[in-house]
Amino acid sequence: MSNPWLALDHDADPLERIRQVARAHERFVTEGRAVAQVRGVVADSWRRSAGARLSADSTAPIELATDDLEAYREAHPLARALPIFRDLLGGLAEDGDHLIAVCDADGRLLWVEGHASILSGAASMNFVPGARWDEAHAGTNAPGTALAVDHPLQIFATEHYSRPVQRWTCAAAPIHDPVTGRLLGAIDVTGGDHLANPHSLALVRATALAAEAFLGSGRAPHAGHATVTALGRDEALLSVRGNRIRLGRRHSELLVLLLAHPEGRTGDQLGVDLYADDLNPVTIRAELSRLRRILGPHLLDSRPYRLHTDVDADFSAVLRLLELGRVRDALSTYAGPLLPASDAPGVVRLRRMLDGQVRAAVLASADRGLIHTWVHAPWGADDLEMWQAYATMLPPGAPAHPLALHRVAQLAAEYGLATSLQRPRN
């Protein structure tokens, strides 16, 4: 296939392709056999879905409902772009054959719009606002897989991992913050098999680009301005002079340490932050020299090593928002732990400090929506105290209440603790 992101070649028979992939899917889920007959991006997604121990007959869970959903999506950055989605894709949402959907970076559906008849069909598989459609919870699907691979793509019929979804075809594209490059979510079009054509993929990609341009309007960085994205990423993303550069691990650590110390650091100080007792001054100087070539002399000074003030970072923005008491905005900006794979002592200290401050602010807020977001994020899924706080906030009759109580009991057993529920501390 000339384009791996398209579901069908131009001369492919859709019905035969559905049958062929269905046979491969059945062999994979029942026998774990290789999936050479399907596209590489789909085979990889099936493996991730199976690795998450997801049943091929499962449906996506609903994580946000009523007031929690409304508050969450009103605060989400993609709320600003909703008019763009409706303007460019509204015709599809009204034709009775398609749905348009917007999800956040964790795959939670924020908006699902279309004719009532097709909305009813989608509701039967929980393709509704508030449901979690990342691969770990819903298997291979266009919005979830587009988020996983960070690329526009189509998922055709039986390519879906979950059998209840296999009568649908969808195309989705990820959307990024135009300044920081942070993944914000995805835009999706869902309908019948006729969507498996180049036009639907081009349409969602163009819509995503239009949304990014709209979000960036009025806040474009000035010449020479640089931003760094390091939350939830093992390697930092540097945006400078209109270019996006993914740094290697060591350069990511150096850049984060320099950002955390605007007053500057000596080579020895950076060496201790990176290597602790295994300090090698020659290695530090070489790494800094290579970093300067990437950044340019206008961004990195020496003696001491220091970044100019027009470099901003996502983790710095989180700290500023916390200082202002804007906990909801801080949590929305917090995309995960700082360089989570790094074991550099200085980065580990910064990561623990930032995690602790965000967590403490969310817990102290006693805001059910914020605590819900925390416990359903990868970094908060095993946080017993947060789950206890969340469970106490849910009305006993709420659908999520028994699930929250089960998670509390499960974590307490894992940690060897007695189960107890306490109101969050203010």
Which labels suit this protein?
426 residues, alpha+beta, Beta-Lactamase, five-stranded antiparallel sheet, four-stranded mixed sheet, 47% helix, 12% strand, globular
Task: Please explain how this structure is put together.
This protein has 17 helices and 11 strands. The protein is α+β, with helices and mostly antiparallel strands and 426 residues long. The protein has 3 domains: 14-216, 2-Layer Sandwich (Beta-Lactamase); 221-365, Winged helix-like DNA-binding domain superfamily/Winged helix DNA-binding domain (Arc Repressor Mutant, subunit A, Orthogonal Bundle); 371-426, no CATH class. The strands form 3 sheets. It has a 5-stranded antiparallel beta sheet with strand order 2-1-5-4-3, sandwiched between helices. Strand 1 and strand 2 (109-114) form a beta hairpin. It starts with 13 loop residues before the first helix and ends in an 11-residue tail after the last helix.
What's the quick description here?
The protein is an alpha+beta fold and 426 residues long. The protein folds into three domains: 203 residues, GAF domain (Beta-Lactamase), CATH 3.30.450; 145 residues, Arc Repressor Mutant, subunit A, CATH 1.10.10; 56 residues, no CATH class. It is built from 17 helices and eleven strands.
